[in-house]
Amino acid sequence: MIASGAGERDAAATPVGAAAPTVIELLHIDKWFGPVHANDDVSLAVRRGTIHGIVGENGAGKSTLMSILYGYYTADRGEIRVNGRTVVIRSPQAALTAGIGMVHQHFMLVDTFTVVENVVLGAEGGLRLAHGLAKARAELTRLARDYHLGVDVDAVVGELTVGHQQRVEILKALYRGADILILDEPTGVLTPQEADHLFRILRRLREEGKTVVLITHKLREILAVTDAVTVMRRGRVVANLATRDTSTEQLAELMVGRRVLLRVDKAPARPGPTILAVDDLTVVNGAGLARVNGVSFALCAGEIVGIAGVAGNGQSELLEALAGLRPIASGRIRWKSRDITNDHQALAGRGARRLGLGHVPEDRQRMGLVTSFAASESAILGYQDDPRYNGPILMDHGAVIESCRRQIAEYDVRPANAVLRTSAFSGGNQQKIVLAREIDRNPALLLVGQPTRGIDIGAIEFIHRRLVALRDSGKAILLVSVELDEIMSLADRILVMFDGHIVGEVAPAEATEQAIGLMMAGIRGDVG
Amino acid sequence: MSPRGRPAEIPAWADLALLPLLNLGAALGASGLLIVIIGEDPRRAMATLAAGAFGSAESLGYTLYYTTNFIFTGLAVAFHAGLFNIGGEGQAYIGGLGVGLLCLAAGGLPFGLVLPLAIGCAALCGAGWAFVPAVLQAKRGSHVVITTIMFNFIASALMTYLLVNVLIKPGQQSPETREFAVNTWMPAAHEMLGWMGIPAGVSPLNLSFVCAIVCSILVWGYIWHTRWGYELRVLGQNEMAAIYGGISPARTIVLAMTISGALAGFVGLNEIMGVHHRLLLNFTGGYGYAGIAVALMGRNHPLGIALAALLFGALYQGGSELAFEVPALTREMVVVVQGLIILLCGALENMFRPFLAARLARVVPAR
Q1: Spatial CA neighbour of B180 closest among B122, B118, B126
Q2: For residue B232, is it within any domain?
Q3: Is residue B350 a part of any domain in this protein?
Q4: Coil, helix or strand for A36?
Q5: Number of domains in chain B
Q6: Is residue B190 part of a domain?
Q7: Angle B227-237/B249-265 helices, nearest 10 degrees?
Q8: Closest CB from A72, A76, A368 relative to B4
Q9: Element (H, E) at A445
Q10: Does A389 sit within 8 Å of B233, measured CB to CB?
């Protein structure tokens, strides 16, 4: 590749990068995990000074590919070239030596350390810590200024916002000499404002000649910030496109392999009798603080009620209290026509399930599944007593696996292998396993927390259709989500929570994002 | 979803068979090196050890007798509820007390009645001794690793008191009870084989060995083939998921610990009822602690524990032969060899994993 100085300057001025030299080249990468072909002959070229997006459904092989580039895995076959030279990357250290840095989805930071201390961790430079720290502080201050990171290098990491912590991760990579930054789903934990700020930083990095590889499933982000985009599907690269030549619809179709409906199609709700009535409910956390404070609402058969709100305003506690996982401090709960407030057995343990109350928990990996178990075993969690899985003493594994196979077929879980470890499934498929398990019991009320967090378009579409179908069959659904889009497209009524209170109720047809956004910030809206 | 820290993926057969064998080989290699340094011939030492453990019916009997204890205490260590029961020593001690008291009282009963009663007593006493720490853990959060160790010391003090002051045979100095009536003795293997007309060397191996094998099978069935075992495993893997699944952690912990205690208590069957035929001090001889290593090496699977117990039994028996035959290799050396095995098979069990994964990825073509 011949790169003239003029070409590089052009690339910096108009950041399309068509004339810029290739900085990373992946050639014919293959990676197997047991029977799963995670990367199938993947070839990819990233040009210097560009922001390169990689999109694909979960399980499409994006993260595997980047893990190979960063040295967590080694490819079974194939070649990696950095700046035209073939390199062997067997560890993250080797990746850093090659100039590749990674910003993880889950930050690798010590909360009680300052930013400087976190950054030098593992790169202290010599025996005397003070000397290394002083040098690092000067360097970090310069980096933070140059790239407009706005990070106070002496702040304690635990006291920073999530957005700032992410910038510390970026700083860490830059400090270690990374020329190429890989960001894995960086906006999953950010508010829209923080995400915008991150994109400004990424553009700034590009101006300085750094190369950014952005892994995401949010197509809007791809269009907003990248120069080029690679679409992956089932371990293969299906398209390499210049971002300006593509659209959300085209990308979605390439990712999923068919046309996808980005909006939910649903008929108006036909609410039936009241299933659950909550009156003045208060839930207290371990420190004695009211996390849910005097909440009242009713939920009817055949409707989806969405609870909107910024994460941490009591939605999770409300959901868990209704599922019987948290004690109720005060208030009344009525199930159908029966008052179950004082019936301690009604919700606790497996009580909620006996009533006909299903629960898709917010965190599928920490609560909804046992990731080290086979899928079939995760698929009976909470229903392990069910007579159809049990003989008088022994568990009928055949029946357990058979039932899981049926659910896998019905919910299009991939790979369709009931005895594969749960952790081997992608997030979207894990969520389908949970959803299948809960809907399979035909619950009168389904509590759903963050049903599509961190999962891909194809699975989101599927899960949304399932939830609407459940509603249409006359079941009640209480949906908690921090994705406002999701609430607005799924819910028949929207309740907005702020600081443990319900601050307003709106009908999705009449609501605007701005109006709900104000309520989410605690500004009380008109009820109705 | 960072893959860091996750052990490299290797096929199941390599994980369950090849890797432990590799670890064992490395441990034996290191031991051999040590023997060379001492100035002995490692081949002769290994041959002596193997012959001492398996060379004759008699030595095999001794090996299996030790194995019996290790199976019981190994099974008792971790019952998949995510807790380590370090109290096997104390539970075995108190289990033995139960067996001993029964045998002292059951002089006139037929053996067919004594056996189930003794099994019941051993289980009840061992379980009872584990029950208190279990409840403290479940209700008060006092960690069982701490409390079970404390209970080991309490058991030891209690037994000393009872044997010195209460149960001692009148008119003697050593703190032991009188010998049990012959009808309460666990039949020895050579006797049972003799009834069938098969001659066998005299050894302490007795019916308890069969009991240990049955226990291994029952434990396996319980953990992997019942809903209660399922709940236990869920709790051990993920407490949040257990609570979500309607599983009470407190109840499950208490259940798991009491079963563990009962298993440890069965050591009393082998030692008190099978060998000593009287209640005496320190008959548990550290089997409870060695059980931790057995469970670690057996990866908490009953089959693995049985195999690890056999290995430890062989080391115990072959080791004493070795110390006898080769004076330079003392009893302590054998402990060093055991330590190396525990180190390489337990603590460093994943040392060869990345290497093996890389090798296998090349040798075994991807499907």
Answers
A1: B118
A2: yes
A3: no
A4: strand
A5: 1
A6: yes
A7: 110
A8: A72
A9: strand A445-449
A10: no
pLDDT of residue A18: 52
- CA dist A44 to A69, A237, A333, A460, Å? 11, 8, 56, 27
**CATH architecture classification, A5-99+179-252:** 3-Layer(aba) Sandwich (3.40)
CA-nearest residue to B232 within chain A is: A384
Interface touch B241/A369, C-beta < 8 Å: yes
Q: Does B356 reach chain A within 8 Å, measured CB to CB?
A: no
pLDDT of B355? 83
**pLDDT above 60: residue A73:** yes
More confident residue, B94 or A254: B94
- Measure Cα distances from A455 to A217, A269, A378, A463 in Å: 8, 26, 19, 10
Q: How many contacts (CB atoms, under 8 Å) link A and B? A: 87
Taking CB atoms and an 8 Å limit, are A72 and B361 in contact across chains?
no
A277 closest CA partner among A262, A295, A259, A299: A299
Instruction: Tell me the nearest-neighbour CA distance from A429 into chain B, angstroms.
Output: 15
* Residues of A with Cβ-Cβ distance to B4 under 8 angstroms: 72, 92
User: Residues 195..234 of B with a Cβ closer than 8 Å to A: which?
Assistant: 221, 225-227, 229-231, 233-234
C-beta of residue A212 within 8 angstroms of C-beta of residue A181: yes
Confidence of residue B273 (pLDDT cuts 50, 70, 90): very high
Angle between helices B302-325 and B331-342 (to 10 degrees): 150
All CATH 3.40.50.300 domain ranges of chain A, comma separated, are 5-99+179-252, 274-364+442-520
What is the least distance, in Å, from the CA of A366 to any CA of chain B? 6
- What is the structure's pLDDT at B36? 92
Q: What are the pLDDT digits (tens) for A7-56? A: 333 333 344 445 678 999 999 999 988 777 889 999 999 999 999 999 98
- Take residue B54 and report the two structure tokens written for it: 């398996």
From A74, which residue of chain B is nearest by alpha-carbon distance? B358
Q: Homologous superfamily of A274-364+442-520 in CATH?
A: P-loop containing nucleotide triphosphate hydrolases (3.40.50.300)
- Give dist(CA A403, CA A141) in Å, integer: 58
ipTM: 0.83
Closest-approach residue (CA) in chain B for A369: B241
Q: Residue B172 contacts by C-beta under 8 Å, 6 or more apart in sequence?
A: none
Residue A526 pLDDT greater than 70, yes or no: no
* CB < 8 Å from A in window 3-32 of B: 3-4, 9, 11
- How close B249 comes to chain A (CA, Å)? 11
Nearest CA in chain B to A397: B225
Which residue of chain A comes nearest to B237, CA vs CA? Answer: A370
- CA dist., res. A461 & res. A234, Å (int): 18
Q: Which residues of chain A neighbour B221 with C-beta distances below 8 Å?
A: 394
Summarised one tens digit per residue, pLDDT across range A406-452 is: 999 999 998 899 999 998 888 889 999 999 999 999 999 999 999 98
Average pLDDT over residues B236-259: 94
Measured between beta carbons, which residues in chain A are less than 8 angstroms from residue B3?
Answer: 67, 72-73
CB B172 within 8 A of CB B109: no
- The answer to whether residue B108 is domain-embedded is yes
Round the average pLDDT of chain B to a whole number and report it.
89
Beta strands A100-103 and A180-184, pairing class? parallel
Packing angle, helices B111-135 and B88-105, rounded to 10: 150
pLDDT value at residue A16: 47
Domain that includes residue B107, residue range: 77-292
Element (H, E) at B77: helix B57-77
Report the gap between the CA of B229 and the closest CA in chain A (Å): 9
Of A301, A305, A300, A303, the residue nearest A315 (C-alpha): A305
Residues ≥6 apart with Cβ < 8 Å to B117: B102, B106, B109
Q: Closest chain B residue to A185 measured between Cα atoms? A: B1
Mean predicted lDDT score pLDDT of chain A: 86
